[in-house]
Design goal:
The protein has about 45 residues and is mostly beta strands. About 0% of the residues lie in helices and about 60% in strands.
């Protein structure tokens, strides 16, 4: 991970940018209790 930036926050919509040094896989999912967003970023081996 090279950089993380919140690029927008308007009417309950948050936009986030992630800067990576290399191409990689990712997955995004929600967890509950409490509700939260997970961004899982991995490296190719």
């Amino acid at each position: 991970m090279q950089a993380v930036a919140i690029t927008g926050d308007y009417e309950a919509n948050l936009t986030v940018g992630l800067g990576l040094r290399v191409e990689t896989w990712h997955r995004v999912f929600l967890l509950s209790n409490p509700t939260r967003l997970v961004i899982d970023v991995g490296a190719h081996h």
